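Sequence, please.
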C-alpha cells in the first residue's frame, strides 16, 4: 500500500504539471486568435474571457488522455534513472502492484474524462458556438460605416451607404452574389433610403424603400442577361437566429454521449466510438508504457521512442477514421475497435514478458554491493 501511494503521488503530481502546461499552451494559442475580435469589434472583456474559458473542456478531450500518458512516462523515467524500480523489486514489490497502481490512476482520470467527454464538453461547445455567433453578429452590425463597401453577415452580401444615422440608411447600394458556383447570377439593389430592423425571432434584415432591383447573369442561355425592376419596398434577411444556424449545421460535437447513443446517423455513431476510444486510451497507453519499462527496463531510450511511436500511430489512425473521409468506403467504427484490440493485445503480450532479465539485473547490482 505504501508503494501504491508513492507511485500515485508521483504520477498525479506530474499529471497536474503537464496538464497545466498543455492548457496554457492551448489558451495562449486561442488568445492570439481572439485578440483581433477585441481590437476590431466592441467586445467586452467578460465575453472575451468567457469564450476562452468555454474552450477548455473541448481541449481537455485530447489533453487529458495525452497528459495521463506523459505523466506515466515521465514518472517512470525518473524512477528508472534513480534505480527506484530496481529497489522496489528488491523489496519484493511485484510488477502487479505497479500495474494495480496504474489501473487505479487510469480509473480516476477516466471518471473525470467521462464527465468531460460525455456532458461538460458538448454543453460548453454548444454555448461557445452560440456566443461566437452572437459576437460575430454584433461585430457585423456595429462596424457599419459611411461611404465604405463592407460585407455583412456573409461575404456574399456587400453594403454601401452614403450616410448612416442609427438604423437609418441613405443612398444605399447593395450587392449579393450567388454562393452556388454553378450559377453565376448576382443581384444589385439601389435605394434612396432604408433601415436595419429586427424580426420577432431575433433575426435582422434590411428594409429598402423606393429603389431599383437588378438581376444579372454572366452565363445565361435561356433568358436575358439582365432583369431590371422598380420596387416600393424591398426586404433582405442579413443574418438568421442561432436556432436556424443550428438546424443547418447540426454539429455532433454539441451532442452528449446519450444523444450520440440514441442517434442513428453514421457521423454520430463514429463520434460515439471516438469518445469511447479516448476513454480506453487512458487505460491502454499508460499500461503499455508501464509494462515496457518494468519488463524491458534495460534499454529505456528504445522503450521511450517505441512508446511515443505507438502513441502517435494510435491517435493518427483514429483521427483519420474520425474525420469521416473514408466513411462511404469502409466502416470506421469496425477499424477503430480493431486498432483498440491490437493495442490491448500488445499490453497483454508485454504483461507475459519474461522478467528474468530484471531479476538477473537486481542480482548483479546487489552482488556488486
Amino acid at each position: 500500500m505504501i508503494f501504491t501511494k508513492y507511485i500515485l503521488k508521483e504520477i498525479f503530481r506530474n499529471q497536474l504539471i503537464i496538464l497545466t502546461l498543455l492548457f496554457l499552451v492551448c489558451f495562449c494559442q486561442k488568445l492570439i486568435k481572439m485578440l483581433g475580435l477585441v481590437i476590431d469589434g466592441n467586445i467586452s472583456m467578460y465575453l472575451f474571457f468567457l469564450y476562452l474559458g468555454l474552450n477548455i473542456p473541448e481541449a481537455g478531450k485530447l489533453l487529458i488522455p495525452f497528459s495521463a500518458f506523459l505523466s506515466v512516462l515521465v514518472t517512470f523515467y525518473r524512477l528508472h534513472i534513480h534505480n527506484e524500480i530496481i529497489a522496489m523489486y528488491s523489496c519484493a514489490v511485484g510488477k502487479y502492484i505497479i500495474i494495480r497502481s496504474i489501473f487505479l490512476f487510469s480509473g480516476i482520470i477516466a471518471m473525470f474524462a467521462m464527465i468531460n467527454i460525455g456532458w461538460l464538453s458538448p454543453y460548453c461547445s454548444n454555448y461557445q458556438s452560440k456566443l461566437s455567433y452572437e459576437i460575430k453578429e454584433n461585430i457585423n452590425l456595429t462596424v457599419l460605416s459611411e461611404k465604405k463597401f463592407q460585407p455583412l453577415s456573409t461575404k456574399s452580401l456587400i453594403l454601401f451607404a452614403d450616410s448612416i444615422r442609427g438604423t437609418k440608411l441613405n443612398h444605399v447600394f447593395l450587392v449579393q452574389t450567388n454562393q452556388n458556383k454553378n450559377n453565376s447570377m448576382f443581384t444589385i439593389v439601389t435605394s434612396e433610403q432604408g433601415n436595419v430592423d429586427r424580426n420577432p425571432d431575433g433575426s435582422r434584415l434590411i428594409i429598402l424603400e423606393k429603389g431599383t432591383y437588378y438581376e444579372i447573369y454572366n452565363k445565361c442561355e435561356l433568358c436575358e442577361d439582365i432583369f431590371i425592376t422598380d420596387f416600393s419596398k424591398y426586404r433582405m434577411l442579413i443574418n438568421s437566429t442561432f436556432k436556424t444556424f443550428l438546424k443547418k449545421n447540426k454539429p455532433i460535437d454539441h451532442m452528449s454521449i446519450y444523444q450520440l447513443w440514441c442517434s442513428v446517423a453514421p457521423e454520430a455513431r463514429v463520434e460515439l466510438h471516438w469518445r469511447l476510444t479516448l476513454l480506453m486510451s487512458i487505460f491502454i497507453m499508460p499500461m503499455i508504457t508501464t509494462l515496457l519499462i518494468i519488463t524491458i527496463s534495460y534499454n529505456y531510450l528504445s522503450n521511450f521512442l517505441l512508446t511515443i511511436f505507438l502513441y502517435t500511430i494510435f491517435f493518427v489512425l483514429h483521427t483519420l477514421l474520425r474525420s469521416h473521409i473514408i466513411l462511404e468506403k469502409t466502416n470506421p467504427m469496425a477499424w477503430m475497435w480493431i486498432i483498440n484490440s491490437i493495442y490491448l493485445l500488445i499490453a497483454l503480450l508485454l504483461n507475459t514478458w519474461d522478467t528474468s532479465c530484471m531479476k538477473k539485473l537486481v542480482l548483479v547490482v546487489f552482488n556488486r554491493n
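The mean pLDDT is 77.
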